[in-house]
């Protein structure tokens, strides 16, 4: 179940209440008239079956309410109620299969913001990935994959393309276009410092071993990227976030980005090109798989005809 909280102008309260009462997937309806101070209005709350969330938001006019009120949708947590069970049974479909498009757009929009925290995590991840390759340490590379925040903008890019949210596409593209060069620049400075202090030189570069997958590109690179991107988008759209960890440690975006700079500065052109190609293949594969998953789940029709969220500010 999801919990819906609406701050509604008094003049629209009865319309919203009637819409909620008419939805079989909504229950536990409560109201506090005059309960909202900023913005002023009535406070309406209800629990909603996940599979009915899009219908409910569309029925109450969530986008219009967001202009002079507010609509908040969160996880209801553990719910012990026969009414809730009946609401879930009445709503069409299965809750675990349902996609709440408004929530997906909002969540991916938040995850693709370019800020200091995003740049810091991406830079640290690239440094960890580069160290992992140079020291032939798969464990360190896995750590870099988990730390890297790049899946957020990649998922946002796929969602924005399918749902035609061009502001979301632009925001995700900027995060990637700025984030990776900054992180790779930080890695370049660290590499130059390592050369100057004698901690690293051309002899430090691996010639094979357990980490060669970072700079060796093949069909398996694209296949893994596609599978990881599909799993990641399924996780986001079905609220099974635990699967995202598996996505993070399946793709080689961050290690490839970090190591391409190291190999370039130490003049191993083959490994530098291989790592850069690996990076591009993984980025493209993840976005492509995300788009395909959303298309299969019916996103174009939902995005155009039913999702009425405001443009991201």
From TrEMBL:
Q: Which UniProt keywords apply?
A: Membrane, Transmembrane, Transmembrane helix
Organism encoding this protein: Saccharopolyspora taberi
PANTHER family per the record?
A: AT15442P-RELATED (PTHR20992)
> Span of the secretion signal?
none
The protein, known as? DUF389 domain-containing protein
Out of the domains of life, which is the source? Bacteria
Where do the TM regions start and end? 118-135, 141-162, 174-193, 213-236, 243-266, 272-296
Against InterPro entries, the record matches this protein to:
DUF389
